[in-house]
Write a structure and sequence with these properties.
This protein is of the alpha/beta class and 506 residues long. It has helices spanning 2-6, 17-26, 30-39, 45-54, 61-87, 90-101, 104-110, 116-138, 143-163, 170-181, 185-200, 203-211, 224-235, 239-253, 279-282, 287-308, 322-344, 348-368, 371-376, 388-397, 413-417, 434-437, 447-455, 477-486; strands spanning 402-407, 425-426, 430-432, 443-444, 459-464, 487-495, 498-505.
Length: 506
Amino acid sequence: MAALGLWGLSRDSSMGNDESATHWAALLSLPQLGHLLAHIDAVHGLYYLLMHGWAALGASPTTMRIPSVIAMIAAVAMTVILGRRLTRSAWTGLCAGLIVALTPAISYYAQTARSYALVFACVIGLTLALLRAMAAQTAGAAGARIARRWLAYGGLVTLAGYLNELSLLVLAAHAVTVLLARYGRRAAAHWAVAAAAGAVAVTPVVVISGRETSAVSWIPRPSPTTLALLFHDYFGVTAAVAAVIIGCAVVALLPPLGARRGRPGGTPAGPGAPAEIAWWRRGGFTVQSVATPLLVVPAGALILESLVARPFYVDRYVLYGEAGAALLAAAGAYRIGQWLAGQWLADSARRRALVLVPGGVVCLCALLLQLGPQQFVRTPDSRLFNFGGPARYVAAHARQGDGVLFLGAFYRTARLGYPADFRKTSDFGLAVSPAKSGTFQGTDQPFKATRLLMLAQQRIWTVGKSPVTPLPAGLMRDEGAVLRNHYSLVARRRFRGVVVTLWLRR
């Protein structure tokens, strides 16, 4: 994961919308940051505060991405530990970690200066904390030791919630896991208290962000396209890799041959241990009872909520479900290896070697069949918007005193991310700056005032939608008409999600 995280980390110093917002927010003073969070993005408040401190080490796009790389390295390492703990197989844990690391979506967010990699790491750490607390509870450990472990669990719930409140959906997955474990009412009650206490501590950010509805107004209802994106986040970009991962996961979920009803609450068996009881009847923590809810429940709950109420579903908000897919795929590959070895080999040494082969094949497929997508996520065009290219283009060709018009205000984020590249230009359409308004876009002048300022400019740059054709309503359509009627188009350059034009007064 470290190698994949550092490969192409600079990405030509290009930032998209979210990263430009992070860059600008991290460089605000603490009073300015507090003013921003009171109006928008309170859900990312803790992350912005952490990045404010990190920015003291450097504020280049590469430097700002390093915390996400570190967090994803930690998440992969904890996935390995989680897999080994659940299956008693170091190879299964390693295979699960490799599957996570080799998934292009993981590299994408490991190299994005946002909180999603940190949330991923918190959720996996939270799941490990659940296993440790339950182990202490059922082993009859001292009360102080049990309390410390549940306190650690509740603390991680709070930390994850402050990094992104939607991470609290993992508690629904843990509820299913606890029910399947059947460790008794006392253990379940302790989990419920720790989970509730951690969630209640997140109430302030939930209340504040609940008032900032404009921050999520752009989120559409789930569609086949958005659901397909989540599918590839979890199972891989190419159809071949997805088929392999899903096939192995299904094998892990199948009941053992000759499965029978058994007494619940037994010791969880590893993928290599003989077991005649289906995992959903066995009790205890198994890779299936932990990974399946992690894969299905948070994403399913968020999708359902977004279909029937206000939409909040975005695939990156439940990215951590990918660990569930990886754990199941690794366990399934190990199970296939055991079956093959049992069918074909009698020699114990060769049998042990053959058991490892399917997992190796899965990891090799995840690497080789996704090299193209892995390379693509390290290019500026992999992001929905490329603000680095337009900013550098303006910096290279602008003259002192040129005007700049953002069509619409959303594209002003380019200037927030690259202020030095716009130093020769004047944003004459801006009435109230982003810092003063507590937003990322600021407040625009009314058209009547903007028109007079436009006609006083000899050269005007536009960044955003192209004004060559009439703009749709709400995207400064009147300003576009002034350009077409009184100016000549002398340059036009298209970037990922952004068009830059230069106009000369006729």
